[in-house]
Amino acid sequence: MGERNETKMRRRDLLALIGTSAGGAAMYRAMSSLGFAAESTYSGPIRLDGDPKGATVLILGAGLAGMVAALELRKAGYRVQVLEYSNRAGGRCWSLRGGDSYTELGGGTQRCEFASGLYFNPGPWRIPYHHHGVLDYCRRLNVALEPFIQVNHNAWLHSRRAFDGKPQRYREVQADFNGYVAELLAKATSQRKLDEAVTREDQEILLSALRSWGALDANYAYTSNLASSNRRGYDKAPGGGVAGAPTPSKPLALSDLLKSGVWQSLFIGSNYRFQSTMFQPVRGMDMIARAFIREVNDLIRFNAKVTAIRQDANGVTVVYEDTTDPGKPLRATADWCLCTIPLPILSQIEMTVGVPMQSAIDAVPYAPAVKVGLQFKRRFWEQDDGIYGGISYTDQPIRMIAYPCTGYGGAGKAVLLGAYEIFGVYAYEFTSLSPAERVARAVEGGARIHPQYKDEFENGIAVAWHRNPSVLGCEGTWTDDLRKQHYQNLCAIDGRILLAGEHASYWGGWQEGAILSSLDAIARLHRRVLAG
Amino acid sequence: MGAPPRLRLLLTLAASLIGAANTSARAEPADLRFSNPTRFMSQSGEALYADICQGCHMPGGVGAVGAGTYPALARNPKLAAAGYVLSLVINGRKGMPPFGGFLTDQQVAAVVTYVRTHFGNEFSEEVTAADARASRPR
Questions:
Q1: Is residue A230 situated within a structural domain?
Q2: What is the pLDDT of residues A265-289, one digit of tens each?
Q3: Contact present, A314 and A168 (Cβ < 8 Å)
Q4: A373 and A414: one domain?
Q5: Residue A239 and which of A29, A176, A284, A374 are 20 to 30 A apart at CA?
Q6: Are A523 and A48 in contact (CB under 8 A)?
Q7: What are chain B's domains?
Q8: Is the pLDDT of residue A144 over 60?
């Protein structure tokens, strides 16, 4: 220990040391005192110290959870084999490009016709700044990142039932909403209606804050003037030369604004998971998968459909078949099994596990989700609408249009996200359409916001996750009750078998969930192995 | 004049697919899909099947097999027990999500009746809205 005292121990090394010796709870307490804990439970590269003496692990699924485990367990001295159902690794970390062919359950086949260099992320598409696990693996595996634009003040907010169906600019809606609320609150303050809630001294501060926040005039009113235009935009923008003076714009009527409901989209970007700065990998989300594949591809057996997971005192046996040569049961054995198979599939696989884990596996349905990528001849959203990246929202089933956060100002073709519906009625209805119908709906819906769709649309591709043959759903949908009943049982080691994946996390549907659950699982597995 | 050729082709394709019997056939005069984000609005069993169930169980109730399986509803003896089917639709089971929160008792009865009397199934005894209500969790 004397040597360590002399060298400056890095914060991460200290945390990792605490983590492996004393477990997660101790690490969390240590992290709190070092200022990290509020953001993520990721504390730096996992350290699996101690000799596993060549123990073997079968990993089921080569998505991010499986590949993280394969990478780290092999580094720690385990002998690892991965079985993957499909013919590629990455799981839901996936990008579609021109030339790709995708066949969904039901046989609908789509051939992506995107121009060279264009892509679409049908699964995860953005990374929060506090998803330290994902970001750290990107650093370690040299995956280049660029900003993902969540909020664009010049994007459209649209409702079929408001403003005669005319889309409104985000900046106008936000400025007017804030302005009117500030005006009302300032009025209440000045009329002494807040005397019981706020001291006089604080009311003065509040009034000043409201004036700034809402761009109120000297009378604490929200009106058409250059101050409010400095938030919402101008009728005639500032220019140069003799005709350079701007003209203020006129706010929307408060009642129209409130009734429209378009203000609901204003709060999305404030959500912890959508706050700036957000990231995406350069050239496609699957760059993360490709980086892992470069490390662990030799460990993966593809086209392996698991049909049974059995264990006894001596080890685990997984029965599977080669989907390119079906009908002949094959067997893989190991000391331990880390299973990352999505639960709708796992619940159909015969497993030798106890009732608690089996009940947990059987308890969690998966959410429906549909994403549609559309290619256009030109970036009309930039050239005509002045929208660079970011997201327009609508109350139509397409829910949103998300513009590419890359290649700004390009003159050629580009791909945008033309629909993203998750959870609930519209997502199920979208799933029930054929691929071509989904694309047609996305074009129809988007055209109400961007009339340019008619002239500029070229082709599209649609992914409905309940029809994805590898997942049979988008993501696990836990409720508070289900977590209370089943979550710990899902995560616990059952004999020689344990689970990982976004479904075994509190970041359901996020890659961080897959990674953190995998690291937690292998840390516990390693402690069990060392204990003998 | 009118939509450019490529868009017209796509919309024609979509329309013909929408009209085709084995994609999303419409039995009702009005297309009630995508009209309410919190509830399915179609009323007939046929329309509800096309709006919801065929997403997984496929047109014709043929089911699908990938890494896991969506059971075929066609000629499926498990549909004989009406209570079982009602409970599945309302509460879900394993990979099948619960739909009770999105459907009225009448709609549940309609779609359960539909699957039990189509796709080669002939379980024709009446299933009513009251039966559906009785299958909801207390």
A1: yes
A2: 999 999 999 999 999 999 999 999 9
A3: no
A4: yes
A5: A176
A6: yes
A7: 5-135 (1.10.760.10)
A8: yes
